[in-house]
Structure formats: structure tokens, C-alpha cells
Amino acid sequence: MRPPSLILSLLFMALPAYASDTVTKPIKQASAKEEASVPLKDEIKQLKETPIKESKAEAAARKKEAQAADELALKIAERLAEIRKDKDDVSKPAARPFVRPYVIPAKKTVSADDKSKKAAKHWSYEGEEGPLAWGKLNPSNIKCDLGERQSPIDIRDGIKVELDTLNFDYKPSQFQVIDTGHTIQVNLGAGNYLNVSGKNFELNQLHFHRPSEERVNGKGFEMVAHLVHKDRDAKLAVVAVLLELGEPHPVIQSVWNNLPLEKNEIVKALKNLDVTQLLPKRHEYYTYMGSLTTPPCSEGVLWMVMKEPVQISPEQSAIFARLYPHNARPIQKTSGRIIKESL
Ligand SMILES: [Zn+2]
């Protein structure tokens, strides 16, 4: 049971509202309903009060009327849809930016994760899978062969300028130690930052090479620690802390204390690690643009090599050497790259 005349009156009231609306005005459906609310109540009241007594013929006629009303309602709905579509078409230039906002495509950036996912098992530091073959082991390693801004380099002829201060904001953090098959890596909890030149990088992990990959005026060092930071756009900034033989270092000892027994096994340390203690006292540095020093050798990495080395004991170096006696990529061409250094 329903009153077809009610639907019709509603639709006819809505129609002129659509037709007369301007682009900016909202559709007047709401007000049409409001206006219809009084007659609606009346009609319902009337229907309730009317005694239900009708013959078969009357019922059939009413059914037919209802069908006709339905058809008409359908036609009106179609027409309304057309009107609405036309209006949308007219208003497209203004409306589209809100309907479909332009989304900046995600940049393909260098990420430390690439390195472990893509090429972890298929390269080494010697033999057939050694550094000279890296570029051919996997198509994604192409930069290892053809890149013009590769790392490490022999740092020399730096331009001496007043470099931006390195603002280290490290704090004692939870850490895990993993033997990746290429080095010993320390994964750090969140909250360690490096702010330089107005950019904020978070420290993700640090790892070691023996001997140091970078040279300074041709001179190599016993080892190096690479502190790998990432900013919001996944751009990498690596701080290199050169390690020379001398006194034992407490941070190195904490890491070695948690060395895993198996490759790719993660050891969750029970104590915190304060990476601030691994930094040299003086914060002068060399800086240049380079790459990951392991496959896929992705470029666009900001390098900051601390000038002052930090000491580790011969025993500490020997412990690392039992696992990785030599895990350093050879020196790469500078190819006219600018190197800057602190005054
Ligand atoms: Zn490294």
C-alpha cells in the first residue's frame, strides 16, 4: 500500500529545483522534502482515516495507476540524472580539482632495504661474485658498473669551507645485532636523529667494514663504522666514523657482546646503546655525494666522513676479523665530484 500521488508530488517539486540551480548552489532536494512534509502528514492521516473497502476492479485500477506512476517516476528520475550530468559537465573545470586531486607520484628513492632484499645472497667481496662482477650479477645492480657517483672514494683536494654543523640528537636506544652475511649490523630503535642543513635524518642502522672503505689522502684505516640515516623521503645520509687501533671502545664492545652465533639470526640486546659515544669529540667532516658501497650501489647518498678517527683495540678488530677479515669495496673514481671539508 502506497500513495503514488505522493511520489509524484515529491518528484515534481524536486524537478524545478534541479533545473534552476546554478553550479555553485547545492541541490535543493533537502528543501523540497521540507516543503513536502506538511502535505505528507496530511496524506498519511487521510489514508489512515479512509476505510479500506475496495472492489476487485478498484484494486486493479489502483494497481495500474501505481504502475503508471512508477514508470513516470522512472522517466523523471532519468531526466533528473541527465540534467545533473549536464550541470556536472559544465562545472567540470572548477569541480575536478576537488573531485580528483592531483597526487604527486611517489619518487623512486634509494633505500637501505633495497640492498638487503634484492642482492643479499648473490654477491661477495672476492672471487666470481666480487666487486668487479656486482654490476652483472643482477640487472638492478647496473649502477655498480656504470654509476659516475659511486662510493667509496679516496678523499682528497677537498674545498675547505665552513660546513653546516652536524646536529646529532642520539639517545640510549634498544638495539639488535645481525650478521647479514656481509657485515655485522646494528639495528636501532626509533628516535635517533641527525639534523644537518635544515634536513632531519633518522638513524636506522650502523654496520662495519674492515679495512675502512674510504681513504683520506690515500690513507686507509683499520675499520670504519657507517651510520645509515634516512629522511622522510627515504633519502640516505651516511656518517662514516673511521676506526683506528688504540684503546678499546665501549660501544664496539657492547655490539660484540651481542654477536649472533648464526648468520641472519637477530640478537636482541638487553641493554641500550648510546651511539653518541661512538662519535669523535670533534665534529669536523668531509662531505660529498656518493652511493651505497654494496649492491645495488644506488646513488644519491649524502656522505659525511668524520675527520677525527675513533679508537678501538686490536682485540676488538681481531674479533670482527674472525667473521669478516675483508669486507671493503675498492676505491671508486671521483669523476670530478666536489668534495667539501670543514675548515
Ligand atoms: Zn657501509
Walk me through this protein's architecture.
The protein has helices at 4-20, 29-49, 56-99, 112-119, 134-137, 142-146, 250-257, 314-323; strands at 154-155, 159-161, 167-169, 175-179, 184-188, 193-196, 199-209, 215-216, 223-230, 236-245, 266-268, 285-291, 299-306, 310-312, 340-342. Helix content is 34%, strand content 22%. The strands form 2 sheets. Strands 2, 3, 4, 5, 6, 7, 9, 10, 11, 12, 13, 14 and 15 form a 13-stranded mixed β-sheet that branches. The protein has a two-stranded parallel sheet with strand order 1-8. The chain is of the alpha+beta class and 343 residues long. The N and C termini lie far apart (92 Å). It binds zinc ion. Residues 207, 209, 226, 293 line the site of zinc ion (ZN).
Task: Give a nutshell description of this structure.
The chain is an alpha+beta fold and 343 residues long. The chain has helices at residues 4-20, 29-49, 56-99, 112-119, 134-137, 142-146, 250-257, 314-323; strands at residues 154-155, 159-161, 167-169, 175-179, 184-188, 193-196, 199-209, 215-216, 223-230, 236-245, 266-268, 285-291, 299-306, 310-312, 340-342.
